[in-house]
Structures are given as C-alpha cells and as structure tokens.
Amino acid sequence: MPYPVKYRATEVFEEKMGYFMDSMVEYFERSTDRKSYRARNIVIFKNGRYHAGDCLSSQMVRSIKEHLSSDESEIFDEFLNKYLGDER
C-alpha cells in the first residue's frame, strides 16, 4: 500500500503540512503495528539455577554452526544434547 501523496496536489502551505502530518501518522502506524521479532526464553533462571527453556529452531542451530569450527560444532552438539536432549 503506497504512502499518501496528497501533499503534492496543493500549493497551500497549511494543507501541505496537514497532509504531511497525515503521512507521518501513517508511517508510525505502519512501523509500529508489525511484530519485528519473537522473543524466546532459551535459558531460564529459576529457583537459583539455570534451566533450558524454549528449544532452538533447526534453522537457528544451522545458522550458529555455520560460524563454528568443527571442534566447536561438536561441543555445541554435546551442549544441545545435554541440556535440550529429546526436546530438539
């Protein structure tokens, strides 16, 4: 959906400013009404200890592993198996 362009149709300053304000309202409504991310509690601190929370998606695991060496990738797999186990 395009942004309003009525301000181009007038030469009267007050009307241009009114249309400009309408455009600004539209901009902020569009930029704040979208969910930009989803929060996941991967690790939870409860009763004085850390616990596994939500699982990492397989896409996130792949993305993390792309930045790890083969040794680090093995350690990461061990970590996932130890703390997430069957939840993966």
Structure, described:
The structure is a single chain. With 88 residues, this protein is mainly alpha-helical. It is 48% helix and 9% strand. It has three helices and two strands. It has helices at residues 13-32, 58-65, 70-83; strands spanning 43-46, 49-52. It has a two-stranded antiparallel sheet. Strand 1 (43-46) and strand 2 form a beta hairpin. The protein starts with 12 loop residues before the first helix and ends in a 5-residue tail after the last helix. The relative contact order is 0.08. The mean pLDDT is 83.
Q: Strand count, sense and closure of the main sheet?
A: 2 strands, antiparallel
How large is the radius of gyration? 25 Å
| Protein structure class | mainly alpha
* Amino- and carboxy-terminal Cα gap: 40 Å
In DSSP terms (H or I, runs of 4 or more residues), the helix count works out at: 3
Report the count of strand segments. 2
Feature tags:
88 residues, mainly alpha, two-stranded antiparallel ribbon, 3 helices, 2 strands, 48% helix, 9% strand, elongated
Summarize the structure.
The chain is mostly helical.
Task: Please outline the helices and strands.
Blueprint: H1 13-32, E1 43-46, E2 49-52, H2 58-65, H3 70-83
Antiparallel strand pairs: 1-2
